[in-house]
Amino acid sequence: MTRGPRPVLLVTGLSGAGKASILRTLEDLGFETVDNPPLQILDELVADGDAPLAIGVDTRSRGFDASALLDQVVRLRAEPGIAANLVFATAEEPVLLRRFSETRRRHPLAPGGAMGSRVTEGIAREAALLAPLRDAADWVVDTSELPLPELRRLIERRFRPENAAGLAIGIVSFGFPKGLPREADLVWDVRFLRNPHYDPALRPMTGRDAPIAAFVESDATFTPFWDRMTGMMELLLPRYAAEGKKYLTVAIGCTGGRHRSVLVAERLASHLASLGWRVDLIHRDLATPPAIQGGASVAGREALSHTS
User: Fold this and answer.
1) Can you list the residues of the chain whose pLDDT is less than 50?
2) Binding site annotation covers 50?
3) Which residue range or ranges hold the RapZ-like N-terminal domain (predicted)?
4) 19 is in an annotated binding site
5) Could you tell me the pTM of the whole model?
6) pLDDT tens digits, residue range 166-201?
């Protein structure tokens, strides 16, 4: 059997953004992992062995220099027999501040302190130092609103060593008020469909329940939309695969992320799987309790969302 190129991942990013979690997941997938080695021995680490390799690098690494690291990334990308990727983990500043507060760990670039404005200064300094790496990354993963199980699933879908070739598809349902999934490649907005939220008997249910399915699918626009959406996906997916794309994230959103988007995501995942595609399904906001929404205010918010 002909072996594919050896995966070599350089994992970097902001302190507190999840680099260690990414490395642990990769280790579980069979990668040899090394965290914060001296940059001078990176070439030696790559040359020693042929197993999938993941190397964690950040501002704590001895001899850290973003320009020198970028030069090494360029060399690795040109190396025959190696599939090199630069992965950059990031998160929003308030999230990083909260994480440092909860763990009571000192930020590596904070000037002599661990909390408050000193951590903020450390985050800013680190972001500036790592900016060239973020710009050159093959994948930037924002963990601000990403629970650890979902982060693991994203890593597994992208980097699981396996013999099966082809396109891996991730389908994510979500609610617009919490923002678009940052990893989304394609986004479908299904807020035009009938909203079960306004029926008190249906509100506590989710898009996985048969009464919700019956309610939404009774909308006269559902079947024409479904036919066009699935037709478009069936047109695009083989083309993405032919161009060598290895993973695609399709996000489906509604107002709350519990009813319409969940139903359509479930239906789409099942449909694509029946056609032979590898599909992973995540309901990002399904656990969010149904909000108390007034008709006028929700209508206004949905109208604003459509025009933004």
Assistant:
1) 1-2, 113-116, 163-164, 292-308
2) no
3) 8-161
4) yes
5) 0.61
6) 688 999 999 999 999 888 999 999 999 999 999 999
Of 274, 225, 234, 221, the C-alpha closest to 252 is 225
Q: Tell me the residue type at 17.
A: A
Residue 14 assigned to a binding site: yes
Check the annotation: does 144 bind a ligand. no
15 is annotated as contributing to ligand binding: yes
Is 61 annotated as ligand-binding? yes
CB-count exposure of residue 163 (10 Å: 0-12, 13-18, 19+)? exposed
Is 179 one of the annotated binding-site residues? Answer: no
- The verdict on whether residue 58 carries a ligand-binding annotation is yes
Is 21 one of the annotated binding-site residues? no
If one counts every other C-beta atom within 10 angstroms of the C-beta of residue 237, the result is 19
Question: Angle at CA 100, nearest 5°, toward 96 and 106?
Answer: 120
